[in-house]
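Whether sequence alone determines local backbone shape is best considered at the level of individual chains. In the encoding step, the backbone of a single protein was reduced to a row of integers, each denoting a local shape. For completeness, the protein is quoted in full, as a sequence line and a line of structure tokens.
***
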Amino acid sequence: MSIAVSDEAARWYKKELDLKEGDALRFYARYSSNSDIHPGFSLGISVEPPISPALEQQAEGIQFYMESQDMWYLNGYRLNVEYMDHEDDIRYAYIPES
């Protein structure tokens, strides 16, 4: 399991969420009606400092992470966070681990 946030995606988050260098963005599992990998759940985001990060990556001065209690969501997958220029939006790609 891993998180990979492209520099372009990190810049998009900085712009959209008014993030500053040193801020942290949490990925977490949330109850929802749609998901590519878990029916009834999807990936949520929150700007908050980490408590017990199990996965983390720095990009463009921002710490992107997932807390240990949410790791079940990515079990068997790598999360790639990519910026889609033509839509000016983010895409979450769940890549099966082999």
